[in-house]
UniProtKB/TrEMBL annotation:
InterPro entries per the UniProt record, alphabetical: Ade_phspho_trans, PRTase-like, PRTase_dom, UPRTase/APRTase
Record-listed E.C. numbers: 2.4.2.7
Purpose: Catalyzes a salvage reaction resulting in the formation of AMP, that is energically less costly than de novo synthesis.
Class of enzymatic activity (EC top level): transferase
Phylogenetic classification of the source organism: Bacteria, Pseudomonadati, Pseudomonadota, Betaproteobacteria, Neisseriales
Pathway(s) where this gene product acts: Purine metabolism; AMP biosynthesis via salvage pathway; AMP from adenine: step 1/1
UniProt GO BP: adenine salvage; AMP salvage; purine ribonucleoside salvage
Organism: Aquitalea palustris
Protein name, UniProt field: Adenine phosphoribosyltransferase
Length: 185
């Protein structure tokens, strides 16, 4: 039986994240969380980190960013007994939406949220799998603010500090929590 009493959870979970070189383009080191999610122990450990962080906070909703933020966010919302709100890529939500465009490394993208996804004053945790340049997280943050939500924190499994996204989010006045980080891209 594995001894977990002195376990460094961040390092342990990081060991389950696969690095795929040159995907989706040359020079990119893609951080694949699939192995971490496939293992029931590491998936539970990951969710438990977030549950323990937020269980004593007054949280009304978890907002997950398309698509891996849906996986983590919906399970976290269930565990905290709060609602879940999807923030999706443009054209995927069936009801009236509000949109936010943001810059990618090569072009622009847009995310949307239902106009009734939250109400003014709702206390929300915004979650995704990774913070790189911060564009997607900032777009989600801006959408939630447009609806009057109080975003308590941006959370992710991974931060890539060299790309500056975490700092961009912090500079915008939003706290950031990540489980682990990687140097380089």
């Amino acid at each position: 039986m594995e001894n977990l009493s002195n376990l460094d959870y961040a390092s342990y979970l990081k060991g389950w994240i696969r690095t795929v070189p040159n995907w989706p383009s040359q020079g990119v080191m893609f951080r694949d969380i699939t192995p971490l999610l496939q293992n029931p122990k590491t998936f539970r450990m990951l969710i438990d980190i977030y549950v323990h962080r937020y269980m004593l906070e007054e949280v009304d909703l978890i907002a997950g960013l398309d698509a891996r933020g849906f996986i983590i966010g919906s399970v976290l919302a269930y565990e905290l007994n709060v609602g879940f709100v999807p923030i999706r890529k443009k054209g995927k939500l069936p009801f009236t939406t509000v949109a936010e465009e943001y810059e990618l490394e090569y072009g622009n993208a847009t995310v949307e949220i239902h106009t009734d996804a939250c109400k003014a004053g709702d206390r929300v945790i915004l979650i995704d799998d990774l913070i790189a340049t911060g564009g997607t997280m900032m777009a989600g943050y801006n959408l939630l603010k447009k609806l009057g939500a109080n975003v308590l924190e941006a959370a992710a499994i991974i931060e890539l500090p060299e790309l500056g996204g975490g700092q961009l989010i912090r500079d915008a006045g939003l706290d950031v929590f990540t489980v682990c980080s990687y140097d380089g891209h």
